[in-house]
Every structure is written in structure tokens, then in C-alpha cells.
Specification:
single chain, alpha/beta, Aspartate Aminotransferase, domain 1, Aspartate Aminotransferase, domain 2, three-stranded antiparallel sheet, about 45% helix, binds pyridoxal-5'-phosphate
């Protein structure tokens, strides 16, 4: 082929590395190897039985046809009730769009907001999908760094100096993947002040809201006042809170005009999220919330264990995650970059971690602790052995 006939934008995107390492680990496992996976971005718990039962009932009653493109009204009402109950923000069902996962809601948001060359501010380290989606929508990611020395706090001065005439939005992710940072109210107020002053949208990805370790608390930036609520596109979903990653239900809540445009995109792309999965998500949001609390307690125990083990390793330092289920240790003391470290770790001691380069930080690795305590112990013993062999 003379010149590639494919989209330049899409050709510039790398495949999602977090899924790639997981696939490699699964392939080794399929070949009979005893691989410990710290790569996964999904809770290791089964979806609650009551949620599965709601899906079975939906199937039995023949709830298997197209739904409205923006999602079932009952589910949008349940999301509105949840946002008021948990986050203190009021939205009407017309301001809510259900999609095939929060990732899809984020993609719709980028498509709705972005004109060619618009800039989107992303705090680094970042979840790999944000810059990829901005590029796919024809925009330009602009990175603002945060560091473990100041607990990954947002520096308002640094944020302000990244704003240009072309800035369209700020992407916020608290609790954070990969760092485990959780935004304080003061940090959110600072971000809101910048957004209001410059008329910038705030895309607030709150997917890890329920996986949070006291005394950290989740605050939605949309709850800080009317002006910032109007500029915020709040993103959330059921994947992480109810261990429903495969069901693919997420949502956005925003000004009605944004919701309308996101619905328009869906009407011409996916038509609607799966009917049965919507029935399941309705039960997740309206039913007993004990499962989510149990899961968060379990993650807390694992966080404590993993952080202790990582901090004891020579050449490694680790911020203690306040939320989500990832540890993001700094391995710069080992004189190895993250790709080399993670490839060697998988091939030599059969432990899968994700290279920090993927998240814009080449001297870190990401370990998901969405795996059993037994696996954590075994995996950490292997990592310890690997690191000691390098010294
Ligand atoms: C920060 C962040 N946002 C969104 C998502 C996607 O969630 P969903 O499964 O609802 O698409 C993930 C999944 O890994 C994530 O880490």
C-alpha cells in the first residue's frame, strides 16, 4: 500500500495497554503457567445475585428489544435519585444519558465537546484512555503534572498556566486511577474557580467513588454550586461499584443540551445500551447497597497489606492510595524503566503489572489489588525475590 488509507487520528492511537498486559497474562495462564495477575482493572467479586436475578427476570419477561437511545427512563430516574442521595446534586432524567460503560460516556462527551484543535487538560499520571479519546475526537491533550511528594495534589498555579485560548475542558478523575489520589474539597474548589473564570467544562470521572478509604471522602465537583454544575459533565457507572464490568452500563449527567447531543451520537452509533443490562443496573442502584460496602472494606485490608509490603522493598517507594484499587509504586531506585520492569517481571516470575509509561510516568508500575489476599501474598513474595535478585 502506497499510503495508509486509514484514519490518521485512529492510527495514532495505541491499543489500551492495561487490557494488553491482561491478555498476555491470560495467554500464559492458558498455557498452564501459574501467573499472578496484578493487571486487572475490575473487582474480583462476582456480580451480586440480586442483580443477576433482575437480569434473568428481564429476559423472562421478554425485555429484549431496543430501548430509548438515552436509556430507560426508570434507570435515568434511578441515576438522578442516586446523584441526589449520594452526591447532593440534582439532575432531571432528561439530563442523564445511559451508555455502554463509563468509557463510552467519556467518549460521547469528548465527541460532543471537541472541535479540531481544542485542548483538554489532563492531570498526569492519567488513565490512558483520556488522551486517546481526546485525540480520537480531534482534540489535543495538555498535561499538568502532579507528584507523589505532594500527594498528587492539584497545584492551582500549574493548572492556570496550562489554560490557553484553545482550552475546552479539564478532565478530573477522583478517586484516581492509577495513583489512588482523592481530591479534597479545597482542590475541587480551586479547579472550579479556574473552570468558571475561563468558561471551561469539567469532565468529572467518578467511577471509583465507592472504593474509598477513610478518612478520605468523595465529593463531586458538581455539588459545589450552580455555576460549576452547569460546566460539569459528571461520569459514573455500575462497573466498579457493583462488580459489573462486563455488563457495560455507565452514564453521564450534564446540562440538558450536552445530554441531547450525546443522545444524538448514540442514536446513530450504538442505538442504546443493552436492555437486559439496564434492568440489572436498575437493581444495582435501587437495591441493597451492602455488597458495595463489603467490597470497599475488603479492598481496604488489601490496600494496607500491599502498601506495607511495597514500602518495605529496597529501591521502591509508594504513595498510600486513598481510593480505587491500585498501588502505583515508584521504582526509580531500581534503575529500570517501567516497560523493562514489567516485561521481565512477567517473563521471569510470572507476575503481571502494568508499566507506568502507559499512565505518563515511566518510573512507576501499577498493581491492581482487585485480587485475593492469597494472590497478593504470593505475588509480593515473587516481586520481592525479583527485586532482590536485581540488587
Ligand atoms: C478511571 C476510569 N474511568 C472509567 C473506566 C471505565 O469504566 P466502565 O467499565 O464503566 O467503562 C475505568 C476502567 O478501568 C477507569 O479506570
Amino acid at each position: 500500500m502506497e499510503s495508509a488509507p486509514f484514519s490518521k487520528l485512529i492510527s495514532a492511537i495505541e491499543p489500551s495497554q492495561t487490557l494488553a498486559i491482561d491478555s498476555r497474562a491470560k495467554a500464559l495462564r492458558a498455557a498452564g503457567k501459574d501467573v499472578i495477575g496484578f493487571g486487572a482493572g475490575e473487582p474480583d467479586f462476582d456480580t451480586p445475585e440480586s442483580v443477576k436475578e433482575a437480569a434473568r427476570k428481564a429476559l423472562s419477561r421478554g425485555y429484549t428489544k431496543y430501548t430509548p437511545p438515552e436509556g430507560d427512563r426508570a434507570l435515568r430516574e434511578a441515576v438522578a435519585a442516586k446523584l441526589e442521595r449520594d452526591n447532593g446534586v440534582r439532575y432531571t432524567p432528561e439530563q442523564i444519558v445511559i451508555s455502554c460503560g463509563a468509557k463510552h460516556s467519556l467518549y460521547n462527551t469528548a465527541m460532543v465537546l471537541c472541535n479540531p484543535g481544542d485542548e483538554f487538560i489532563i492531570f498526569s499520571p492519567y488513565w490512558v484512555t483520556y488522551p486517546a479519546q481526546v485525540i480520537m475526537a480531534g482534540g489535543t491533550p495538555v498535561f499538568v503534572s502532579t507528584s507523589p511528594e505532594d500527594g498528587y495534589r492539584i497545584d492551582a498555579g500549574r493548572l492556570r498556566s496550562a489554560v490557553s485560548r484553545r482550552t475546552k475542558a479539564i478532565i478530573l478523575n477522583s478517586p484516581n486511577n492509577p495513583t489512588g489520589w482523592v481530591a479534597s474539597r479545597e482542590e475541587l474548589e480551586a479547579v472550579a474557580a479556574v473552570a468558571i473564570e475561563h468558561g471551561l467544562f469539567v469532565i468529572s470521572d467518578e467511577i471509583y467513588e465507592k472504593i474509598i478509604y477513610p478518612p478520605a471522602e468523595h465529593t463531586s465537583i458538581a455539588s459545589l454550586g450552580k455555576d460549576i454544575r452547569e460546566l460539569t459533565i459528571l461520569i459514573n457507572g455500575v462497573s466498579k461499584s457493583y462488580s459489573m464490568t462486563g455488563w457495560r452500563i455507565g452514564y453521564l449527567a450534564a446540562a440538558q443540551e450536552i445530554a441531547k447531543l450525546a443522545t444524538r451520537i448514540q442514536s446513530h452509533s450504538t442505538s442504546n445500551p443493552t436492555s437486559i443490562a439496564q434492568a440489572a443496573a436498575l437493581e444495582a442502584l435501587n437495591g441493597d447497597q451492602g455488597f458495595t460496602a463489603m467490597m470497599a472494606r475488603e479492598f481496604l485490608k488489601r490496600r494496607d497489606y500491599l502498601h506495607k509490603r511495597l514500602s518495605a522493598l529496597p529501591g521502591v517507594s509508594c504513595f498510600s492510595p486513598r481510593g480505587a484499587f491500585y498501588a502505583f509504586p515508584d521504582i526509580s531506585g531500581l534503575n529500570m524503566k517501567s516497560d523493562e520492569f514489567s516485561i521481565q517481571l512477567l517473563e521471569k516470575v510470572l507476575v503481571a503489572v502494568v508499566a507506568g509509561r502507559t499512565f505518563g510516568s515511566d518510573y512507576n508500575i501499577r498493581l491492581s489489588f482487585a485480587t485475593s489476599m492469597e494472590n497478593l501474598e504470593k505475588g509480593m513474595d515473587r516481586i520481592e525475590g525479583f527485586i532482590k535478585s536485581k540488587l
